[in-house]
Amino acid sequence: MFYGILDLPWWGFIVAALLLTHITIAAVTIFLHRCQAHRALSLSPVVSHFFRFWLWLTTGMETKAWAAIHRKHHAKCETAEDPHSPQVLGLKKVLCEGAELYRKESKNLETLERYGQGTPDDWIEKHLYTPYSAKGIFLCLALNLILFGIPGLTIWAIQMAWIPFFAAGIINGVGHFWGYRNFECEDAASNIVPWGILIGGEELHNNHHTYPTSAKLSVKWWEFDIGWLYIQTLMFLGLAKVKRVAPTPKIVQGKEKIDAESLQALLHNRIQVMTIYSKAVILPLLQVEKQSIERQLFHRIKTSLIRADQVLDDIGKEALEQFLEKSGSLKVVYNFREQLKSIWNRTTATQKELLDALHEWCLQAEASGIQKLQEFSSYLKGYTI
User: Fold this and answer.
1) pLDDT-based confidence at 258, cuts 50/70/90?
2) Using CB atoms within 10 A of its CB, is residue 262 exposed (0-12), middle (13-18) or buried (19+)?
3) Are 245 and 41 in contact (CB under 8 A)?
């Protein structure tokens, strides 16, 4: 019985550990994250309850607490109220103490009440999963010892460390500190790698923060989200229904007027529009002035020009302000970007007011005398539903 009732070869224990931890990752990304926290898809009761049971067994996490903390993270991202921002707390703390930060926030009743609405509240949640959230992991230990014998203790230890390290540490830490960015969303979220396999697709974190309610985390053709593959399989079996994915903009060539359809399409794709603005207008003008800028300063200014103010420190903001004062054309297009951004942020404005503001922005851009800005104004008019 040293190797348990399964009596696996040495490599079998490695496969078992990887398989069991991967099921946990799939449960986190599909059920907790995409289904519960963001309502991007719905799952059949059978699949939903399997994930709930599996997470109770392997992590002891409560659905309401996880969803509430994650929703608060999006609402307060990169601020002092963000439960786990490395931009505020430092990368080392989030990477090494991510699980402790989660546990601390899970005891905040205000967070649970405000952000935890709509999560499972049935009999088994009230009488087993929530009051006895820690019991599942001990049942998991017992099952591992029965199935795998003494090596099961190591498998259990790996299971217990997998989510705290990869989800609470890597995604919440590295995913907001290092990587590549497809979109300049208003926080520091980055894609760690373009192949989301090890952490169920959560590696594509910049894509997720750009389109948080999308059930699919990959955006570029060369990116791969294994969590989306599993969702598609569940859809094929009739066990899941996708509600939302990232919008795909439609551009009509030769369209000469901003209309209601243009406005709606631009609002749905506003972060992508701002990213294109940086690449098509700001960076080409910066490239013209590259020869007159020190190399180290060039890279710092480049980052500061395209990033949102929320993720710039005081030194970066000051350096950017000083640089823009010396560069007439770049200051103009930078200010135009801020004006365009302010249109998106007018949440209380009527459709007519937004349409008028966008139309006026295009008129001023065309009268600026800056070719890249004029070309971008024409590009905006092509957006449609």
Assistant:
1) confident
2) buried
3) no
Distance CA 265, CA 333 (A): 22
Place of tokens 């974190």: 205
What's the rounded Cα separation, in Å, for the pair 17 and 87? 33
- Which among 234, 186, 243 is positioned nearest to 214, based on CA atoms? 243
CA distance 245 to 282: 29
Three state DSSP letters for the chain: CCCCCCCCCHHHHHHHHHHHHHHHHHHHHHHHHHHHHCCCEEECHHHHHHHHHHHHHHCCCCHHHHHHHHHHHHHCCCCCCCCCCHHHHCHHHHHHHHHHHHHHHHCCHHHHHHHCCCCCCCHHHHHHHCCCCCHHHHHHHHHHHHHHCCHHHHHHHHHHHHHHHHHHHHHHHHHHCCCECCCCCCCCCCECCCEECCCCCCCEHHHHHHCCCCCCCCCCCCCEEHHHHHHHHHHHCCCEEECCCCCCCEECCCCCCCCHHHHHHHHHCHHHHHHHHHHHHHHHHHHHCHHHCCHHHHHHHHHHHHCCHHHCCHHHHHHHHHHHHHCHHHHHHHHHHHHHHHHHCCCCCCHHHHHHHHHHHHHHHHCCCCHHHHHHHHHHHCEEC
What value does the mean pLDDT of the chain take?
90
Confidence of residue 355 (pLDDT cuts 50, 70, 90): very high
pLDDT for 4-38, tens place per residue?
898 899 999 999 999 999 999 999 999 999 999 99
Residues 6+ apart with CB under 8 A from 99: 163, 164, 168, 169
Q: Residue 327 has what pLDDT?
A: 78
Q: Is the pTM of this model over 0.70?
A: yes
Please classify residue 362 by burial: count the beta carbons closer than 10 Å to its beta carbon, then call 0-12 exposed, 13-18 middle and 19+ buried: buried
pLDDT tens-place string over residues 116-157: 999 999 999 999 999 998 899 999 999 999 999 999 999 999
Burial of 133 (0-12, 13-18, 19+ CB in 10 A): middle
The count of other CB atoms within 10 Å of the CB of residue 368 is 16
